[in-house]
Design goal:
flat; mainly alpha; two-stranded antiparallel ribbon
């Protein structure tokens, strides 16, 4: 009975009718719905209440290609609802297929030259909000071909903060997928992010924070981490961290400092990253900065992350330690003149004598991740016909612990398990001859094993 329900029913009716003049009616109804959502909290609650079909009607209208002219107004309605009602409605949009519809709109809007900036901002903001609620958003973006749209927008509008910020938020969501992270890294996203992050500055701190979070997610891929090490970005990250640590005396930008540490933590997951961290004097830098943070309790996350990085990168040695690295000196009773033990004792103090083989299978792991992701992509379109349905084949085979020949020795203890039902003479230990009872009349029926 409300005006909102009436307008939604009109919009739904326009979707079903393909008459001349429907475009003007749809534009008029869309503007009225947007005005009510922006001005009345009652309308927002009514559209997001349980049992309401408001979001379904909007999504179905966006899916109709002939009504692209009113897409901006309907996207603005969804954007306003999510921004005002929080993330409660994001999962509803995902369950109704909103992710796929928004990606299709993003793909079609990117074909305009130049693309509508306002529409791109709204679409990326919506995708950034609903992305964490959809576990398959990275795969969907790759299948639809929308993966590089956000990256190209950042490249072309590097100084447009209003557009770059939501684009980076979407890239952060995409980067949680390992295959997407490798693909974006090949297209130069790591180098692009290092153009955004930089020394201490009070301007654009929100963009700095999002860029660091996106970079940390990308560097979890070992391929991107190796690319960052080859270009000397480990030293750059340490320099940025020291600069922010020195200027942030009031600790207002602790999250940015933690973001830099997260990037260092991700890049030191590989052997080359740990070596580059040691060569850049990172151990001393993090130790000194951690000492400065011990007096402030709010900086405990920085100390904890720095400790994890230092423990991971510290050279590993076998006991006993004959060098100054250890507080105790374990002397072997007899040290041979030659051999592997003598070689360990003759190594310089700074040499890591434990072979690190953690990165030897990186390429195989990356290929297996890509194959697994491709299998997930196929599952979206094709049903798996290789599932075994034969119950007999699915039952586990029960194998005897001993052979049949070995088990025959116990046959005399269990005569009831054999098919010979003759009476046994305990004295002669031989079967007795069967003698029928004379008092019995009628035929004698010997029970079979099943009747027994």
């Amino acid at each position: 009975n409300s005006r909102t329900v009436f307008l939604l029913s009109q919009l739904e009716k326009i979707n079903l009718d393909s008459v001349v003049g429907a475009s003007d009616n749809a534009r008029c109804v869309t503007s009225k719905i947007l005005h009510l959502v922006q001005s009345q909290e009652k309308t927002r609650k009514e559209m997001t209440s349980k049992g309401s079909t408001g979001i379904e009607v909007i999504l179905s209208t966006l899916e109709v290609k002939s009504f692209n002219f009113c897409s901006y107004g309907l996207i603005a309605v969804l954007h306003f609802i999510i921004m005002k009602c929080g993330g409660r409605r994001a999962s509803v949009i995902v369950t109704k297929g909103g992710t796929q519809i928004l990606l299709q709109l993003l793909l079609s809007a990117s074909k305009d030259s130049p693309p509508n900036e306002e529409l791109m901002v709204l679409l990326h903001t919506l995708l950034a909000k609903i992305g964490p609620k959809d576990k398959k958003i990275g795969m969907k973006a790759r299948i639809n071909g929308a993966l590089n749209i956000s990256l190209n927008l950042v490249k072309q509008n590097l100084h447009n903060l209003r557009l770059v910020l939501p684009c980076l938020q979407v890239l952060r969501v995409y980067s949680t997928n390992s295959v997407n992270a490798v693909s974006l890294g090949k297209n130069g996203v790591v180098e692009l992010l290092f153009k955004i992050i930089g020394p201490f500055s009070k301007k654009n701190t929100s963009l700095m924070k999002v860029a660091l979070d996106t970079l940390a997610a990308l560097l979890k891929s070992k391929t991107n981490a190796r690319r960052a090490v080859d270009r000397g970005y480990v030293q750059v990250l340490l320099t940025i961290y020291v600069d922010w640590h020195g200027h942030d005396s009031r600790h207002r930008y602790m999250l940015i400092r933690k973001g830099v540490l997260q990037c260092i933590k991700s890049v030191t997951n590989i052997k080359l990253g740990r070596k580059a961290f040691i060569d850049a004097n990172g151990m001393k830098i993090l130790y000194n900065t951690s000492q400065d943070c011990l007096a402030v309790r709010t900086l405990d996350p920085l100390v904890n992350t720095s400790s994890l990085i230092m423990r991971k990168c510290f050279p590993k040695n076998r006991l006993p330690l004959p060098t100054i690295k250890s507080a105790f000196h374990f002397q072997l009773p007899v040290i041979p003149a030659s051999g592997p033990v003598a070689q360990l004792y003759n190594l310089p103090p700074d040499v890591d004598d434990v072979v690190d083989e953690s990165d030897d299978n990186d390429d195989a792991e990356t290929e297996s991740e890509i194959e697994a992701e491709n299998d997930d992509d196929k599952d979206q379109h094709f049903k798996n016909d290789d599932i075994e349905t034969d119950i007999n084949k699915l039952k586990p085979r029960q194998e005897l612990g001993r052979s049949i020949e070995e088990l025959k020795m116990y046959e005399q203890f269990f005569p009831e398990l054999s098919e010979n039902f003759q009476e046994w003479d305990l004295v002669s230990k031989e079967p007795k001859a069967f003698v029928p009872d004379a008092n019995l009349s009628g035929p004698i029926v010997v029970p079979t094993a099943s009747e027994e």
